[in-house]
Design brief:
The protein has a single domain (about 5-140), classed as HUPs (Rossmann fold), CATH 3.40.50.620. It has 6 helices and 5 strands, in the order E-H-E-H-H-E-H-E-H-H-E. By secondary structure, it is of the alpha/beta class. It has a 5-stranded parallel beta sheet, sandwiched between helices.
């Protein structure tokens, strides 16, 4: 018997690639009339806590900013009423695995930024460890494929 995708986790870093993955996640959620969990993990202090205008943000301010961005994505781009928003601080892979297990997620929909070689080694990647360790299927939207 095929698995029903009633609870779908969509992590985002607010990139263009992530936005496309969120659209896929919302489509899956609509088909099953399921819940869509939008998650952003604050991880890299060098990119997360510096405001574009040049001043620093506390983690609380950065979390509030991320929450506002998630609300904007939900309201303006997805328009799906069964969305739950999550902002956490920590390692993205660990936080996403914890959320997937806690909420008994049926599907994770994520973007792949297409990094290879040294870039992946330096910047890291979340999609690959999610695929290897996820308690559920993972749907990966590759860069340039929409």
């Amino acid at each position: 018997m095929l698995r029903q995708f009633k609870t779908i986790l969509c992590p985002t870093d607010f990139s263009e690639e992530s936005r496309h993955a969120l659209e896929y996640g919302a489509s899956f959620a609509r088909l099953s009339e399921g819940s869509l969990l939008l998650a952003h993990i604050l991880h890299d202090p060098t990119s997360e806590v510096f405001h574009p205008e040049g001043y620093t943000l506390s983690f609380e301010q950065a979390a509030q900013h991320a929450q506002a961005l998630l609300e904007e994505v939900r309201d303006k781009h997805l328009a799906y009423p069964k969305c739950e928003l999550y902002v956490e601080v920590g390692d993205p892979f660990e936080q996403l695995m914890a959320l997937a297990r806690k909420r008994k997620v049926d599907l994770i929909v994520t973007a792949s930024h297409g990094r290879t070689g040294l870039t992946t080694l330096v910047l890291g990647g979340v999609a690959e460890p999610l695929i290897r360790n996820s308690p559920c299927p993972v749907f990966v939207v590759r860069r340039g494929v929409f």
